[in-house]
Amino acid sequence: MDFLVFQYPMITVQACLDGILLGVLFALIAYGMALQWGVMNIINIAQGDLVILGGYIAYFMYLYGIHPAWGVIVAPIIMYFVGIAIYKLVINKVVDRDLFISILATFGISILFMQLMNFAFGADVVLANSHYGTTMLFDNNVVLPNSKIFSAFISILFAVCLVIYMKKSKLGRAIRATAQNARAAKILGVDTEKVYAATFGINAALCGVAGALISITFTIHPYMGLPYTIRSFMIVIVAGLGNLPGVAMSGMGLGVFEEFADYILGTEFRIGSVFLLLVLILVYRRFKLSRKREYLK
Amino acid sequence: MNKNNLILYIGILIFGLAAPFIFPAFKVQLSILCILIVLATTWNIQGGEMGYNTFGNILFYGLGMYLCASVQVGMFFPLAEWTESGGEKTFVHTPTQFFQGMAMGLVVAAVVPTIVAGLIGYAILGLRGHYFAICTLGLGVAAGEISGGIEIIGAGQGFTTPPFPNVGGLEARGEFFYFLSFLVLILTFVAVKAIYSTRFKLILNAIRDNEDKAEAMGIATMKYKIIGWMISAFFCGLAGGIMGGLVGYIDSTDVAFDGREMGVFMVLMAILGGKGTLWGPVIGATIFHIFKEGFWTFFLGWQYVALGVLIVVIVIYFPEGLMGWLREKYPHRFGEVVDEADRKAQVEIK
Questions:
Q1: Per-residue pLDDT for A237 more than 70?
Q2: B-chain residues within 8 Å CB-CB of A108?
Q3: Which of A101, A136, B42, B202 could share a disulfide with B232, CB 3.0–4.6 Å?
Q4: Sign, CA torsion A120/B251/B285/A223
């Protein structure tokens, strides 16, 4: 633990920029989670594992000599079908049941994916090197890898495309209608079963994009999934469902928080601080809400 | 209590006392089974009776484990040096020291998690449904990550608990831990059974069925939720303390705060047996443990894959558990009166 942060202001700038670029990625994953939470009322604990799986797709392309940036296009296509398969096998049986059942079922999927990836790809920490080089800012005091800038750019691109798609296309309208009222949508001729499958597929595809970007900019490991789930859950509850600017803002805020926690507390407490932040946010939320229910006491 | 029940209880008690002599090779497995039943039964107080699905009971279990071992070592030797020396022991407990330390450690391991449960419970038991579930999941993982960064309890390299002293022959260690865990199991079962026959259980069920209405009826729901969680924490802490001594080695994320294994196991066992019943967790834990050991033996290497599949299958196809299924099939055995005409007249509303 040291307080370099206060002695060298450039480290603050570095942490903020790193955090924002990281936060954009978190926001992309959280957007997928908000989508399926809003539409299907399911919290997918396996979200983070889908991200890691997407990362491994990009990593394998890198191993076979293809530039990993193409993973941004290949991973979502593969992950879309993985998502549909998960939906058909498991999720459609729990979709209208108790929320805890779906949490537990996706927890099971998460363990399954984690272990299968561990078998298939080994327990090493890997990354796909993109050879993008770095950008120096402020008299060479701040170092930004170009891959991070690239990943933030691609994330924003995908998010914008998805928002436009949700607004304009027929499927997008159907998804939004189902989110508002599934029963009414069914009466009006929306095939909600198909909408659910598509939503889960789109979510998995978003996870695939994010995973491919993470494998380029950071590292991936089969067991690193759960923190991504928790981060996206946290972002969604801070922002609220269906609040897209909020998701982006709180994603970046979380990224910056993490970078500072990393500098101040030390890297070994990084994941721990994320989980503690979740608990603190929920506790804050509970006391804020309980003030509204004072009259019951 | 009628005559049949009394015979059943006495039979189980005799079997429990005789088990380590009948199956001498399975003493450790039987001890673990006792611990698992304790965990499932205490989880059932939250998940089954109160409707608060927690992944966080693992927090008290891990806390108890670390506290028991720390007290057992710290009472006689400097703790920091003990954990630093890792596997090579420079300090040896005499038998008296070992048992004194264990007794003191178990007391601390039971009391401190209870207090912690009270404090945390006040903060987070106001959360509902999935917020509570995810929050407790976060708590468990955070505890594991943080304890993995603390030097004095061994940080990443783990903590070796004091080895069993050289008294009473080769079988003494297994028997000691078996009877200790069996004692805790009986304590837990008796306590839970006593609780379930009081108004307290009705209040917990009222909270599960409709918390706002229960509150409106004048029940201080918060108080009862916290008390319920403290009871769970008490027995989870005890179970953790014993498990630490039994395993002999404590690691932050793989043994103590093992949300991925033990934390899910306790939920699964209760669901498999049937949550919201007294016997469900006991039966569920027994079946689960046998299955698990089978998996671990026959699918070595693939056990976690099998575990993931098992979770999905149990949750999708047996959400009511074994007791729920029996209840559906033989309702009169559970003291329910079924009106056949009424049953036929019921139309499922979708």
A1: yes
A2: 307-312, 315
A3: B42
A4: negative
